[in-house]
Amino acid sequence: MDLAFEKGGGLLPVIAQDDETGDVLMLAYMNRLAWEKTLETGKVHYWSRSRNKLWLKGETSGHVQLLKSAFVDCDDDTILVRVDQLGGAACHTGHRSCFFRKVQGDSLIQVAERVFDPEEIYGK
Predict the structure, then answer these.
(1) Which of the listed CATH numbers 1.10.10.10, 3.90.226.10, 3.20.20.70, 3.10.20.810 matches domain 5-88?
(2) Which residues pair with 32 in a beta bridge?
(3) What percent of the chain has pLDDT over 90?
(4) pTM to 2 decimal places
């Protein structure tokens, strides 16, 4: 299976979706190594653009994503992973989903409570 990593300069967008509820948890990026490690280990790995390194989701927090299934779009340049989100939260802000704010007019309204306090996990 050959995905089109070259289209995105070596990175492809990845949508992480809760396998049980269908909730969209986050959007991140994978390079070829992250894709291969995900398939090999069954734990979702991403490429951190801010840290410029391979990143096992949950390596610091313990909120690992276990791969249930993976889908690739028709252009071979976007990945959808359906996951079992351990620890109840995918977002580093402590929310279950990174999409915890809703656009209302010209404002963002928080529509979900935190699952954990990020200071306790990350010390920041």
Answers:
(1) 3.10.20.810
(2) none
(3) 91
(4) 0.92
